[in-house]
Hexosyltransferase
Amino acid sequence: MLVVSLRVSLCLFPKELKNCHKRHGDSDPSKHVFHLSTDKLNFGAVNMWFLLNPPGKATIHVENVDEFKRLNSSYCPVLRQLESAAMKNYYFKADHTTTLSSGASNLKYRNPKYLSMLNHLRFCLPQVYPKLDKILFLDDDIVVQKDLTGLWAVDLHGKVNGAVETCGESFHRFDEYLNFSNPHIARNFDPNACGWAYGMNMFDLKEWKKKDITGICHKWQNMAINEDSTLWELGTLPPGLITFYGLTHPLQKSWHVLGLGYNPSLDRAEIDNAAVAHYNGNMKPWLELAMTKCRGYWTKYIKYVHPHLRSCKLSVSEIPDM
């Protein structure tokens, strides 16, 4: 997870950060703060990467989610669920097919990302960053193509979350993500409400605290656990739709284009014009199954001459000869 505080001209990779500073000379790079949250397995590597590849004068703040002492199973319902015996049995007993769902019929749920607290950390941002009033949240599978400074000036009109809406005439609405056969869901939400995208979000943490957003999220997570029922689809977007229902301000679509990891029909002009390109889906650009027409938006920022990157299996056929 990456969040940014203060007024920054945001770019994702060290090389791009330096170019970004050149383009926006009126911004003070020393006031750019990038907060990266990772787990203990990757904490040392991420820290070392930025020690060896500092992004100019910007500050990189790397944190280990396992050291967030307040985020324990007593405080976070989702952690209690992740630590439950049923969840452990489901994930680590190959022949067990009756816990949580009928095994093979829901193999998607075995994806490790659903077990990671990093994936659920987005619901506890004021607890993780108590001194910040506003942050820009970025997923780890996005590429920032343009300056995002303008997002800090967007008026959220008292809302908590600024996000790009994703609904069309009859798709990506709440009824695709939430279980409206459950009376709690049916009573509280409009099935035709418009969905929005996680991946690049402006969060007003002052309003978040006033409206007790984390408490709203915990209430619904507790309900899902206690009733042992499926209230929403997998992932963090459905509980996000619930948590920020009526509290999300729509951003212009040019800020954030999605689908580079699954949608072959994406228009190149739409990708080129977007400030953020999001590889949501399974076809990540560093994998062989990546879509050819989308991979280049990521590879052009990778410093293949770096010895560590040259030893990684990153689209080897595209790495130039030295």
